[in-house]
From TrEMBL:
Belongs to the ABC transporter superfamily. The keyword Transmembrane does not apply. The keyword Transport applies. The lineage of its organism: Bacteria, Bacillati, Bacillota, Bacilli, Bacillales. This is ABC transporter ATP-binding protein.
Amino acid sequence: METMLSVESLGKSFKDKQVISNISFEVQKGEIMAILGPNGAGKSTTIRNIMGIMYPDEGSIVFQNSNGKDIPRHIIGYLPEERGLYKNVKVMDILLYLAELKDYPLDKAKERALAYLKKFDLEGKEKVSVEELSKGMGQKVQFIASIIHEPELLILDEPFSGLDPVSQELFKDEIRNLADNGTAILLSSHQMNLVEEMADRLFMIHRGQKVIYGTMEDVKTQYANFKCTIHGKNDLYDLERIPEVQRVEQNDNTSILYLSKDVQPTIWLRNLPEDIVIQELAIDRVSLHEIFIDIATDKNLFQEAGEVNA
Ligand SMILES: Nc1ncnc2c1ncn2[C@@H]1O[C@H](COP(=O)(O)OP(=O)(O)OP(=O)(O)O)[C@@H](O)[C@H]1O
């Protein structure tokens, strides 16, 4: 594995308020690394420090292929959380202008721009001015602008917000495709279902501190306990008394039983009391969405916060 970006012990305060502290992670070539956390956790602050929009009080940021001082902007693509392109400029002109700023050859940029506009259903929009585009179309153009110069490291801050489901799929496929072709991707998103599908590794910040760092696989085995969903009319008290049931959520005739860590579902099912009414039953792992809420609300029911070994 080749490390493209290494964030080491980053700390940042605004006035006397420490916003992030001791943040360390790496982004490897060819992987999608997700950076997660509740609103205000410190994700954008971390990204802005990486991009040199602000400077850390502590720690360092090391890019591969850089001289150790400057941020190698020509090899980075960045889709910021704040959207916005120059409004009264034509789509192709803005894409070529941004490619030029990154020292990327214009003929290649034009070729790539046309191919991407076609891929994102914007064929024929080259001469349309940015202000005439819908919000989603504008976001597609901004995404193309962030990858036009074939960056080796791509930083995406909430790329899916405001996109319809079809466009979300397009973005998702393209991001995966870029990673498969070697781009290192740092992805910040609140859409846990998409992160769960896409990310190879994840880093979660809560109140400016690391709470999870590891591969999606490890996080899912170490944090995501099993849950059993039962359709059928049952008494809450009876369900709560079943061994290895941590807690039960009930809604009409559906009950979700959250099981203790390390429960073997096959053995647990064998020992279910016979008088439990079961019309349907499903066993699943707890989703990333549920893990996120568990940590963000400080319940920590699934596992004590800590490092998952990557
Ligand atoms: N320029 C600033 N001056 C003062 N405080 C700031 C500044 N930028 C961010 N903060 C504070 O830093 C904390 C982290 O903000 P940040 O934008 O990094 O969070 P985030 O994880 O990206 O949140 P969101 O999911 O809402 O985008 C917040 O408490 C925010 O108010």
